[in-house]
Amino acid sequence: MENPPPKAAQQKEILKATSKENTRPSDIQLHTQQRAAKRAIFNHYVESKLLLIELEKNQLQKLQKMIEEEEIRKMRKYMVPKAQLMPYFDRPFNPQRSSRPLTIPKEPRVHMLSDRCWRCNSCNEMYNFQYCQPMKSIK
Question: What is the DSSP string of 8-64?
């Protein structure tokens, strides 16, 4: 029994062939440094844009303030306070009669109508009513 049976030798070779070598991790390249640089550039761009907008806003406010001050100066220059004329107390105001004829008032036609005086033209149409004369009683 010095030589092992051929089946056992084959099994050892198969086990050796099928067992894989340990994998070695490869260097992982993350893009965090590149993204951080791009983000810093973008943040700088946004800050500069906001700064420009703020400067334009301040300039516009200064310009509006100067225009308003100039308008106030012009108004003060041209607006001279003037005294009101005194009313004439020696000639009091006497209203004159109008030449138009007076209006003659008319009485409103408000009658208390009973429900019997109103009838519907067609039952399908709502709010289509007709006034009918009350019937005279026969003697």
Answer: HHHHHHHHHHHSPPPPPPPPP---HHHHHHHHHHHHHHHHHHHHHHHHHHHHHHHHH
User: Residue 67 is inside which H or E element, if any?
Assistant: helix 32-78
| pTM, two decimal places | 0.37
Strand, coil or helix: 68: helix
| DSSP characters over 69-127 | HHHHHHHHHH----PPPPP-SSS---PPPPSSPPPPP---------GGGEEES-TTSTT
**pLDDT tens column, 73-106:** 998 888 877 788 887 778 877 888 889 998 888 8
